[in-house]
Specification:
The complex is a heterodimer of chains A (64) and B (408).
Chain A lengths: L1 E4 L9 H5 L4 E3 L5 E3 L10 H9 L6 E4 L1
Antiparallel strand pairs in A: 1-4, 2-3
Chain B lengths: L19 H5 L1 H10 L4 E4 L5 E4 L2 H9 L4 E2 L33 H7 L2 H4 L1 H4 L2 H15 L5 E3 H6 L1 H11 L6 H13 L5 H24 L5 H7 L1 E2 L2 E2 L2 H14 L2 H16 L1 H9 L4 H11 L4 E6 L3 E3 L2 E3 L4 E5 H4 L34 H18 L2 E4 L6 E2 L7 E3 L1 E6 L2
Parallel strand pairs in B: 2-10
Antiparallel strand pairs in B: 1-2, 3-7, 4-14, 5-6, 7-10, 8-9, 11-14, 12-13
Helix pairs in contact in B: 7-9, 7-18, 10-11, 11-13, 12-13, 14-18
The chains are: A alpha+beta (64), B alpha+beta (408).
């Protein structure tokens, strides 16, 4: 599984970072980005789905 | 205190969001409007305003900055075009919340680092200590006011800290905030007097920081640059006014509504007392179900919007709290479910105007609720006294009578 934050859509709600800090981080402006080139370890797939489903801006895409 | 418009006579055609009945009965009013086939209410008050109630419409307006300007995010009796010295679009009086593209992005960008999660996290211990002190100050009273003695104080402390304002001025801030946000239907003279006093206060502090810079938001703004130029005095002033007005009663409202829920829902309260790690998710649900903030937009040109004819300069209320209760987006939307894992709520807005203080608000809410539950594991609403709701676009309890059952 891979995730990607669209930096044009992200408005810095930081829901993904709060829910899955192993997968997402935020920069000095509070904008989110994916860690590890977006590659999600199997054990964290549920967390990744949860982060995607909680983004108010629909800014995160997931590839399985 | 009475509105110049008198009581609202019909919620579909003569609504008034500052009528005391509105915030008090808000969920029933929205449900009645929607079931009677009126997803967009209207009023001639305030020079004409619309109230769209679905997630779809709130979403659409939030992203359409061409047809819906943010120039005046609080509905008033006068349109900005009727106020002689109002700062024009795309800047507006309180940037960046009052700004439209293209100005908006730069004004927001320079504020983002101040409110980024890693920047505000260190405030955790300051807020925690303050919350404990508020509870210590309640002594062993059985009956307390959760709004006056607890919720209202926390964001005031944080905002005063941010701006370098003395905490002793807190009562004065609340008078000005009430005037700016709640008294929108009152005779204009008093509000204008309050606005002048607030302006004097802010100007005095800006002058002091020019003389002697400190480690605060005002000094930061005075040093900041946009496109290689220092900010205008007007811009600094507007952003300071925004930080003071927008950061206080919003968080105070969300916290008060959350405490009211916990007072009346002992199962949820006990679960959070036993499992404090569930508090963060519960807060997202409280933010969804009791979202405090409705913003406003101004229509930029005559247009058809979902079958209603909006005119240039009409107000449009943007009720994020109503979007959060739309069944199409949130299954069982009327049920407050702290186990709700998927919760794309819009409490902090959508699009370019996402509340810039949302990380700070979340931090305050999490710490304040953790401490309250730790110190008062059992409490209930004191039903002998009435809950008093705020008026206008920010909804929350202004009096929250609680009975403390057990304390630690």
């Amino acid at each position: 599984m891979r995730v990607h934050v669209d930096s044009k859509k992200c408005q810095g709600h930081n829901r993904c970072y709060a829910l899955a800090p192993e997968i997402f981080d935020v920069d000095d402006y509070g904008q989110a980005f994916e860690l590890n080139n977006g590659v999600v370890p199997v054990a964290l797939e549920e967390k990744a789905r949860l982060a995607v489903a909680n983004c108010p801006e629909f800014a995160i895409t997931i590839e399985e | 205190m009475t509105s110049v418009y008198g009581p609202a006579t019909d919620w579909a055609t003569d609504f008034d969001h500052a009528d005391p009945e509105y915030n008090k009965n808000i969920h029933k009013i929205w449900d009645d409007l929607k079931t009677s086939g009126c997803p967009i209410a209207h009023t001639d008050r305030y020079g004409g305003a619309w109230l769209p109630l679905t997630y779809e419409m709130v979403h659409e307006i939030s992203y359409d900055t061409t047809h819906f300007s943010s120039r005046s995010p609080v509905v008033g009796q006068l349109k900005p075009s009727e106020i002689p010295d109002a700062v024009p679009a795309p800047v507006g009086g309180v940037p960046p919340i009052s700004s439209d593209p293209p100005f908006h992005a730069g004004a927001r960008h320079l504020l983002l680092p101040i409110f980024a999660p890693k920047k505000i996290d260190p405030l955790n211990s300051v807020i925690r200590e303050f919350c404990h002190k508020l509870i210590d100050d309640m002594g062993d009273k059985e009956f307390v006011d959760g709004a006056v003695e607890y919720a209202q104080n926390i964001p005031v402390m944080v905002v005063a800290h941010l701006l370098g304002f003395p905490l002793e001025d807190a009562d004065q801030f609340r008078v000005w905030i009430r005037s700016a946000l709640e008294d929108v239907g009152e005779a204009r003279e008093q509000r204008e007097t309050d606005q002048l006093a607030l302006a004097d206060y802010i100007n005095k502090h800006i002058d002091q920081r020019i003389e002697k810079p400190g480690d605060d938001l005002i000094s930061y703004l005075l040093n900041a640059e946009m496109e290689g130029e220092k900010l205008s005095r007007e811009h600094v002033f507007g952003t300071v006014a925004l930080a003071l007005i927008a950061g206080i009663d919003t968080t105070w409202s969300a916290l008060g509504s959350s405490l009211l829920h916990l007072a009346n829902n002992s199962v949820d309260r006990r679960r959070l007392v036993e499992n404090p790690s569930m508090i963060a998710q519960a807060i997202e649900e409280f933010l969804r179900a009791y979202a405090p903030v409705t913003m406003a937009r101004l229509v930029t040109e005559d247009m058809d919007f979902h079958g209603v004819q909006m005119k240039k300069e009409d107000w449009v209320l943007l009720p994020f709290p109503a979007a959060n209760r739309d069944e199409k987006e949130f299954p069982n939307a009327a049920t407050v479910d702290i186990d709700r894992e998927i919760n794309r709520h819009t409490a902090f807005g959508l699009g370019i105007h996402r509340c810039i203080g949302s990380n700070l608000a979340r931090l305050e809410l999490n710490v304040a609720i953790e401490v309250f539950l730790e110190r008062f594991p059992d409490f209930e609403q004191d039903t002998k006294e009435e809950v008093k709701w705020s008026l206008g676009q920010v909804r929350g309890p202004r009096k929250l009578p609680l009975r403390i059952v057990t304390r630690t």
